[in-house]
Amino acid sequence: MVRDDLLPFGFGTKWRKVLGIVESLQKNQIKKVLLWGAIHGNYLASFTTILRYFGFQMETISYTKDPKLKTYNERLVNLHSHSMHCYANRKEAEKSFFERSKTFDGLCLQEFGIHPAQSTGLRSFWQELESEIHKILKVTHTGLKADKRSNNVNNSHAKVATLVLEIGSGASFVSAFDYFYDSSILVLGVMVGESKSSWISKIETLQKELHLKIQKIPKESILEFPKDTSSQYANRNQFGTANSNFGTLKGVRFAKTSKDHINWIREFYQKTDIILEPIYSAKSISNLMQDPNYGDTALKNSFFQIQKDFLPILYQNLPLFYLHQGGQIQHSDFVLKNSLE
After folding, report:
1. pLDDT digits (tens, 9 = 90+) for 271-286
2. Residue 20: what are its φ and ψ, rounded to 5°?
3. How many whole angstroms from its chain centre is CA 244?
4. Residue 232 burial by CB count (10 A; 0-12/13-18/19+): exposed, middle or buried?
5. How far apart are the C-alpha atoms of 20 and 54, rounded to whole Å?
6. Is 119 helix (H, G, I), strand (E, B) or coil?
């Protein structure tokens, strides 16, 4: 597991994206930033906080369906915004953003912060990660022999390892795919909040917005887990403990959390000291680690073998690195309540 969740506030990979934008703002002497998005979401909370930290004047436009809901992300947005307006639905917020952007003297970032400068921050991270992965492979003597069967997947380079990360806005995934395209590391994306067929149609637009090379991403490079894995893995006990919830997560709607998810996250934390969040990482990990023989030792390994049910046979023999992109601070109470008690 690549622990990018250990960055300040658990913002993870969003730090990489924002740092690229910060560099662009400073270079162009822009001091004000206008953002819009869901007030309880990780995007608005992280971008507002980080940009305010670097001294920019922050104006945010947000929305929420539940004005009474109080979350940590909402507190971060309120605390780090010089000016903030919240609306009852997304459509009103978007309309307000476009109206305000006509006269705003600064950078106006669309929802999710898609901007060419994100690519700069992410690229430096991929460079570091590529070096680290090869160091680990060399030390463990695993994956050094390239899988020759993978030569014709994306390019002519044989693959020695797989990097898996979720697809949210898709910026991190298309950036990673672009960087590692001609490398020995295969990049796979996991669909979480959107269907695979729907998101694939947006790839070219996203590549243009990030100023990346326009290239086709094979369908087999994008994973889509079953919405309900309870029947397939109901009797599996991931850590060998009684009444374990591991491997029994039922699919729920995006951004919704069930009691099973909370219990699963809590048990995973108790065994690993790693906090997952229910929207992305918990769903991915619960599907990737479906081997009942995995125990504490396997969890401490630098990589683990992906569950073969979800991966084309072409990639099954490659060691796998999972990128934990952060976002868990919003859900820390799932695991910290018991610790404080």
Report:
1. 888 989 888 888 888 8
2. -65, -40
3. 26
4. middle
5. 12
6. helix
